[in-house]
Design brief:
The chain is an all-alpha fold. It has one domain. It contains 5 helices and no strands. Helix 2 packs antiparallel against helix 5 and helix 3 runs antiparallel to helix 4.
Length: about 110
Amino acid sequence: MKKQFYTHLIEIDSIHTELETIPLEKHEKDELVAIVHSTIHHVIIETVLSELPEEDGKLFLSHVTEEKHDSVWELLKQKIEGVEGKITKAIENLKTELHQDIDEVKKEKK
């Protein structure tokens, strides 16, 4: 996964481990991992943008696009109280959903 401004906040090894237990071709698992990473990115961006006024949101997206991680955090910490906790909570909720989805697939494959 490409380093993002939030990389230090997320841990998804448990998702990777669970995906390995599903009887799929390697390319299918690779696609699922890519989807997981993309979904994480979208959830975090959505979480942050929902907390920012439009102009700050534009600046945030500019910093993200230009990979200015320090500038991203400087902006977020100024504008959103408890931003790291909000991002972490959003990812934990997503991980719970993903684990449930994986469990359903595993039951179907039996």
